[in-house]
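tokens incoming
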């Protein structure tokens, strides 16, 4: 990101065929970024989904910022810190706060990205009472200027509070 630069990106997916696990027809992520400096940017992202047999609807609105700690130039390592407030736009879904580091390693046409976020839920619809750790990773190989192959994964784990030592019983 460069100072004063504004970007709009759309990432979409269309689903076809019987037995779709996601039960979706389409999903879209629309992202607006603006660089206030060469290292600091503000991000607004909207998530839209259309379930099979339904109309497309807005699901989430994310507002956040990212600061680049290590700026990657071509091949090499980039490291940043990102924070978001995620506003759930559907009934019975909690709002979330996400914050954590991101790293990307690029070597030629290959790249590896890992995003680690601590997640907290807010509001009367919150389903967790302690932070969770959310880890996303992606391995990517650019085949041509317009075609790539990628593998992604997501893991989410609750960070439990330690029990009070006086509450632990010994069986000795």
């Amino acid at each position: 990101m460069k100072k004063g630069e504004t970007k709009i990106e759309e990432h979409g997916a269309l689903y076809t065929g019987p037995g779709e696990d996601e039960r979706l027809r389409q999903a879209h992520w629309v992202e607006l970024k603006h660089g206030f400096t060469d290292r600091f940017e503000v991000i607004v992202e909207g998530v839209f989904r259309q379930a099979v047999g339904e109309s497309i609807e807005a699901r989430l609105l994310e507002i956040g910022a990212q600061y680049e700690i290590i700026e990657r130039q071509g091949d090499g390592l980039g490291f940043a810190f990102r924070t978001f407030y995620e506003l759930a736009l559907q009934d019975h879904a909690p709002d979330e706060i996400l914050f954590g580091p991101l790293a990307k390693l690029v070597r030629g046409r290959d790249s590896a990205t890992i995003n680690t976020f601590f997640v907290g839920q807010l509001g009367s619809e919150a389903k967790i009472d302690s932070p969770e750790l959310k880890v996303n990773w992606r391995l990517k190989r650019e085949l041509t200027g317009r075609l790539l192959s990628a593998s992604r994964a997501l893991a989410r784990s609750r960070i439990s509070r330690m029990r009070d030592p006086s509450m632990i019983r010994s069986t000795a």
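note: Strands lie at 6-14, 24-35, 40-51, 57-70, 76-88, 95-107, 110-122, 132-142, 148-158.
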